[in-house]
């Protein structure tokens, strides 16, 4: 179960000495037959050099391989950073016999540090030499930063497979996160089609998670499709499989949030509109007060009410009327129609489900978030020191 689960994909991960720990830090994923692809990127106005370069490459050619380094983000590094990203792509393209524009480059790590190009080039050569259909696990391990372990997923159905790997544990917030995701499939798609399927899958999964409310400079979700399965087309089945893999990986990211001990599942129904439901779910998911209550296993529904009632939507807050509102923790209603129920829900577990029924309309949305812990503060206080 990995990024090489689909037919016709190879991958590898090696140590190039970028990370002081000596752990693997360069990965390559390649389609061995002609592929088509798409990517979605961070919306942060500060975008890393690999994001800028890879956008240009995607505009010029179909992606055939992805080069990823961990340890250095190559962000806020100016024109030199872009030149370094291009040099990395050129070197891997020459090794694999591809055009430079067919290479996607991704980086993750510390912002404001120049890419150690010599190490990346040596690592990419070593990774190219060790590409294998069994290399998905090694690739998933080589892209990690503060992650506790690799994140992989795969679904096989209808004669085709969707596989993928992800990294991300902190700086996680919608419009992507400090998150890199590579998805692969042997389902047959034509040029221009991957984004049609990728965008809704990402909107419903990776753009509905939050660890700390911070949006990164390097985020990317890549989809490569090579049609190697020869499967008959069933676009509905493919969309479901792609969504399932994205949902699996996004939940793994939240569960592995820096210092996380509780996963918050937030569901909003009965909103006046779907965008307002999403705004309310997002506001609850990013509330430090809700997240710290989750860490303490405290069903503090007052914090949920306050967050829900202050969800930015346009120039105002999303519509909410406590007279028609129900709030539940793990299936136990704690607030109904303007009054507490005095019920005591059990929130002692590693998952806390918070449901709100606004009673205003048909709008609905869900979110995943992690709690906010002492360890989160410690990890991020020591990140560069």
Describe this structure in words.
This protein is an alpha+beta fold and 385 residues long. It has two domains: 9-255, L-amino peptidase D-ALA esterase/amidase (4-Layer Sandwich), CATH 3.60.70; 263-381, Ubiquitin-like (UB roll) (Roll). The chain contains ten helices and 18 strands. The protein has helices at residues 49-60, 78-96, 117-129, 136-142, 194-204, 235-255, 274-285, 288-295, 301-308, 374-381, and strands at residues 9-14, 26-31, 36-41, 65-72, 103-110, 151-157, 160-167, 180-185, 209-210, 220-225, 263-271, 312-313, 316-317, 326-329, 332-336, 339-340, 351-357, 363-370. The strands form four sheets. The protein has a seven-stranded mixed sheet with strand order 9-18-11-17-14-15-16. It starts with 8 loop residues before the first strand and ends with a helix. The mean pLDDT is 94.
Could you give a short description of this structure?
With 385 residues, this protein is of the alpha+beta class.
Number of strands: 18
SS class: alpha+beta
Q: Widest sheet: strand order?
A: 9-18-11-17-14-15-16
Question: Which CATH top level class of the largest domain fits?
Answer: Alpha Beta
CATH topology of the largest domain: L-amino peptidase D-ALA esterase/amidase
Helix content: 25-40%
What would CATH call the architecture of the largest domain?
A: 4-Layer Sandwich
Listing every helix as H and every strand as E from the N terminus to the C terminus, the arrangement reads EEEHEHEHHEEEHEEHEHHHEEEEEEEH
Query: If you compute it from the alpha carbons, what radius of gyration comes out, rounded to the nearest whole angstrom?
Result: 21 Å
Low-confidence stretches: none
- Taken together, the total number of domains comes to 2
- The CATH superfamily title of the largest domain: L-amino peptidase D-ALA esterase/amidase
Oligomer: single chain
Tell me about the biggest sheet? 7 strands, mixed
The helix tally amounts to 10
Taking all residues together, what is the mean pLDDT? 94
What separation lies between the terminal Cα atoms? 35 Å
Strand content: 25-35%
Q: What would the principal axes of the Cα set say about the shape?
A: globular
């Amino acid at each position: 179960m990995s990024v090489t689960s689909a037919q016709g994909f190879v991958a590898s991960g090696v140590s190039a000495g970028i990370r002081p720990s000596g752990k693997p830090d360069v990965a390559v994923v390649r389609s061995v037959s002609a592929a088509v692809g798409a990517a979605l990127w961070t919306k942060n106005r500060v975008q890393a050099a690999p994001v800028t370069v890879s956008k240009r490459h995607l505009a010029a050619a179909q992606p055939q391989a992805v080069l990823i380094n961990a340890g250095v983000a190559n962000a806020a590094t100016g024109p030199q950073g872009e030149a370094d990203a291009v040099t990395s792509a050129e070197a891997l393209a020459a090794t694999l016999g591809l055009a430079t524009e067919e290479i996607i480059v991704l980086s993750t790590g510390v912002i404001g540090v120049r890419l150690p190009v010599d190490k990346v080039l040596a690592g990419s050569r070593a990774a190219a030499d060790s590409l294998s259909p069994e290399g998905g696990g090694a690739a998933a391990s080589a892209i990690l930063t503060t992650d506790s372990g690799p994140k992989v997923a795969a679904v096989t159905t209808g004669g085709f497979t969707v596989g993928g790997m992800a990294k991300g544990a902190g700086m996680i917030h919608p419009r992507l996160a400090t998150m890199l995701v590579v998805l692969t499939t042997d389902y047959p798609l034509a040029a221009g089609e991957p984004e049609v399927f990728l965008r809704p899958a990402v909107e419903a999964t990776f753009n509905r998670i939050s660890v700390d409310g911070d949006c990164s400079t390097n985020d990317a979700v890549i989809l490569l499709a090579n049609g190697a399965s020869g499967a008959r087309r069933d676009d509905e089945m493919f969309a479901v499989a792609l969504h399932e893999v994205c949902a699996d990986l996004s939940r793994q990211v939240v569960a592995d949030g820096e210092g996380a001990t509780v996963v918050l599942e937030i569901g909003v129904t009965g909103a006046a509109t779907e965008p307002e439901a999403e705004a309310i779910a997002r506001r609850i998911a990013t509330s430090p007060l809700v997240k710290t209550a989750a860490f303490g296993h405290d069903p503090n529904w007052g914090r949920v009410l306050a967050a829900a009632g202050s969800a930015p939507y346009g120039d105002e807050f999303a519509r909410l009327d406590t007279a028609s509102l129900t709030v539940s923790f793990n299936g136990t209603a704690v607030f109904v129609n303007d009054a507490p129920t005095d019920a005591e829900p059990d929130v002692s577990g590693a998952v806390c489900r918070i449901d709100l029924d606004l009673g205003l309309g048909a709008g609905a949305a869900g979110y995943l978030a992690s709690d906010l812990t002492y360890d989160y503060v410690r990890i991020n206080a020591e990140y560069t020191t």
